[in-house]
């Protein structure tokens, strides 16, 4: 056979090989494309489903602020609530009718209320776009202003702050709706002779952070908030002392374990609000040695804000804030925040053992959900800071973790709250098919048309029937360490909701509604 013919046949065979490869490759490619598309569609659907879940939960959680409002209600969205506390503050010639009741009773405590405002402001500043996407930013800002209006009125002069409306001892002798309160409404205040650095500094933090929220939409109101914030911080720093030492009787309800964390927290917020490096020096020089040096991570709550301050200040390091450049003290706060994140991650070598078997952070039997929800909120913030600043690695001993690991932890805590737990119950009232029906809450437990005096209402506390009114959005206390939960109105340890826990939950859920990069400066909002 001629060499030329052999060569020609080989060429034709090769040509057919190429055609076959192309055809098979096209088929394989098509199959790959279809499979990949299905996987992507599935992942997209899964992500969308998760986001829908958190969106639905956020819409419900936001309603609890309306449940807790005092004063003359405008556009009342809760059918079983009405005007209450309209004369609060009148004996001091002040209008303290607004604000929110702290939990299931009818007292307004300034310390946890101010914390509620600070955290709600933080949530709006970081995740306001997420809220806006599902029409929740306006409700959040309205609830925030309901509190800050009260706080402004509670600060009639530079060194005077009214911190409580109502007598909890007398209030707890009654079981009655806030609309029908029969008890007296005495006031408590802190001043230069009865200092309260903790409550004054927390109120300063609330007003400073809120001034950022309203800076673009109402500059006059924002300026007023900031003015009061500065005055309150100066007052808190000049006249040092704990408010529960000035008023020991309040310690039974909201005992302050120290005021150093509030001073650092307030100064941190004032720096974000003003850019004044005086506040930055406050948190990084002498006061850092006094108040920021602790052994190991701390737990973020209405009483202890140090962990929150660490994360808030680490923001400056992540995004290269000019005022913080070269400030080693800010780096120290970031190192502490790193340690906290490592303690939260379950697979970290320094992971905290303070968890239930199902992985819920668990610190105390009273109001047990405050710490896991607070920890999750800080974790997702930190995750977003890392991701947005291209700091993709968190070193925990010899192990390394990514922002997604922190987000996964935050989701696990949120999912537990929403029903992924051994009791198969949602601890967010109104969410899911099964949630607490015997919430320890006066207004929710008494029928709208019932007429009760102070003590007659206790029949509703002991009633075996579920609450006639649903306290939508209430985050109840939560499970015991063994993950059991007793849905009983008399079990206030587990079934009483709080406004401040709702604020932290709103922050957590808002962060999970979507994935987006945070602004580099909170002053950009």
UniProtKB/TrEMBL annotation:
Catalytic activity: Endohydrolysis of (1->4)-beta-D-glucosidic linkages in cellulose, lichenin and cereal beta-D-glucans
An example Gene Ontology biological process: cellulose catabolic process
Coiled-coil portions: none
PROSITE patterns according to UniProt: GH9_2
Transmembrane listed as a keyword: yes
EC number(s) on file: 3.2.1.4
Active site (record annotation): 440
Protein name: Endoglucanase
Source organism of this protein record: Gossypium darwinii (Darwin's cotton)
């Amino acid at each position: 056979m001629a060499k030329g013919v052999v060569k020609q046949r080989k060429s034709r065979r090769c040509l057919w090989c190429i055609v076959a490869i192309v055809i098979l490759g096209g088929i394989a490619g098509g199959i790959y494309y279809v499979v990949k598309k299905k996987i992507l569609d599935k992942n997209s659907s899964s992500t969308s489903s998760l986001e829908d879940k958190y969106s639905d939960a956020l819409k419900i959680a936001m309603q609890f602020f309306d449940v807790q409002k005092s004063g003359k209600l405008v556009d009342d969205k809760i059918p079983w609530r009405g005007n209450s506390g309209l004369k609060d503050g009148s004996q001091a010639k002040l209008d303290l009718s607004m604000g929110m009741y702290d939990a299931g009773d009818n007292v307004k405590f300034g310390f946890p209320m101010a914390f509620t405002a600070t955290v709600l402001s933080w949530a709006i500043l970081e995740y306001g776009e997420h809220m806006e996407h599902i029409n929740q930013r306006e409700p959040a800002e309205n609830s925030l202003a309901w509190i800050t209006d009260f706080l402004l009125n509670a600060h009639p002069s530079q060194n005077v702050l009214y911190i409580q409306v109502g007598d909890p001892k007398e209030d707890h002798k009654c079981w009655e709706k806030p609309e029908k309160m029969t008890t007296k409404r005495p006031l408590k205040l802190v001043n230069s002779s009865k200092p309260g650095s903790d409550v004054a500094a927390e109120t300063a933090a609330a007003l400073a952070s809120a001034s950022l929220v309203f800076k673009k939409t109402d500059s006059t109101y924002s300026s007023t908030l900031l003015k009061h914030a500065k005055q309150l911080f100066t007052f808190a720093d000049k006249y040092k002392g704990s408010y529960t030492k000035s008023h020991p009787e309040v310690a039974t309800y909201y005992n302050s374990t120290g005021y150093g964390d509030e001073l650092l927290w307030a100064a941190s917020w004032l720096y974000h609000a003003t850019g004044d490096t005086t506040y930055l020096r406050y948190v990084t020089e002498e006061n850092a040695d006094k108040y920021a040096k602790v052994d190991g991570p701390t737990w973020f709550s209405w009483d202890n804000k140090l962990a929150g301050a660490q994360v808030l200040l680490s923001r400056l390091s992540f995004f290269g804030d000019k005022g913080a450049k070269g400030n080693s003290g800010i780096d120290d706060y970031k190192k502490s925040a790193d340690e906290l994140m490592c303690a939260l991650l379950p697979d970290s070598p320094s992971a905290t053992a303070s968890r239930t078997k199902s992985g819920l952070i668990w610190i105390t039997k009273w109001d047990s959900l405050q710490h896991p929800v607070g920890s999750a909120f800080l974790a997702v913030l930190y995750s977003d800071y890392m991701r947005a600043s291209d700091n993709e690695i968190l070193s925990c001993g010899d192990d390394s973790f990514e922002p997604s690991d922190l987000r996964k932890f935050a989701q696990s805590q949120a999912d537990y709250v929403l029903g992924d737990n051994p009791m198969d119950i949602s601890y967010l009232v109104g969410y899911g098919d099964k949630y607490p029906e015997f919430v320890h809450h006066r207004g929710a437990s008494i029928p709208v048309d019932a007429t009760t005096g102070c003590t007659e209402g206790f029949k509703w506390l002991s009633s075996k029937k579920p609450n006639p009114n649903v306290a939508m959005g209430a985050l109840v206390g939560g499970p015991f360490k063994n993950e059991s939960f007793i849905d009983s109105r008399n079990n206030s340890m587990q079934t009483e909701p709080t406004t401040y826990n709702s604020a932290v939950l709103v922050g957590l859920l808002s962060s999970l509604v979507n994935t987006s990069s945070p602004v580099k400066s909170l002053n950009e909002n």
